[in-house]
Amino acid sequence: MNIDQDECKNLYTNFSGVDMYVDYRNKRLKILSHSLLSELIIKEIIDYSKKENLGKIIANCYKQDLSLFEECGFVAEGVIDGFFQGEDATCMSLFLDTKRKNSLYEEKENRIIDYCVKNTNKFELTKNKNYTIRQAVPDDIPQIIQLFQTAFETYPTPIFSREYLQKVMQDHILYMVAEEEGKIISIASADLDKQHMNAEITDCATYPKYRGRNILSELIFQLETHLKRNGFATAYSLSRANNLGINRSLSKLGYMYRGRLINNCHICGGFEDMNIWVKTLK
């Protein structure tokens, strides 16, 4: 799969009044709106997805729509508490590609979660640190891209693109960076859903030589401070299920493990499972 070419085709579209995001980069379709959904429309969306050679359909679902999705073959992979302005969302998935149903690393990923849940160490702010934390600005974008290129072979969103980063930085993503001696050494972001008052903690990366210093946890803590100040109800993160560091950071910060999205997105050269972590901010 040519990721760059596929990214160019990604689109938001409307199908029989239902808003959708067709994500060729990750070979999936996301159902974004629910009010006009019916079994007939969902089946039409499934047929469309098959024609487009997509392997997975996903939706964050209201409680009252659960049975409709289940009747159409969807399965629940997790929950994001408080996603809809305080009301919980169930993460529903339909696997069109049967190979995509099964995790390749389930045992390892379960061990990581078991370790994180049992490890009761809590986050504490670092004293006398050599780095400073601040909100990113457009002038930081060349350094941000360099960090992302070091951390990720491929990524679910076009974070290696200057134009993309400029657009989302102005629009709906808050980036926080750690800087040491003029160099950005770590980054994390909050993707702001102002309609539902939730935010996804994402785009987390640290240069290898700076890992193990609690930097990422501090970045996320500062993002949470901004979210609380602006009235957001919920923060959540979809973290790489086979990466101990990010899962441990979220657990230490008080996020609760709420499920796993199997083969959910294309990152570092292949499809990976993503753990759902949720924290109530209000």
From TrEMBL:
User: In the UniProt record, does the keyword Cytoplasm occur?
Assistant: no
Asked if the Swiss-Prot or TrEMBL record annotates the protein with the keyword Acyltransferase, the reply is yes
One Pfam family name is: Acetyltransf_1
Q: Name one GO molecular function term.
A: N-acetyltransferase activity
InterPro entries hit by this protein: Acyl_CoA_acyltransferase (IPR016181), Bact_Acetyltransf (IPR050832), GNAT_AblB (IPR022525), GNAT_dom (IPR000182)
Any idea where the N-acetyltransferase domain is?
131-282
Q: Which UniProt keywords apply?
A: Acyltransferase, Transferase
Which NCBIfam families did the record assign? Answer: GNAT_ablB
Q: Which PANTHER family match?
A: AMINOALKYLPHOSPHONATE N-ACETYLTRANSFERASE-RELATED-RELATED, N-ACETYLGLUTAMATE SYNTHASE-RELATED
Q: What is this protein called?
A: Putative beta-lysine N-acetyltransferase
Q: Which organism is it from?
A: Dehalobacter restrictus
Q: Which gene encodes it?
A: ablB
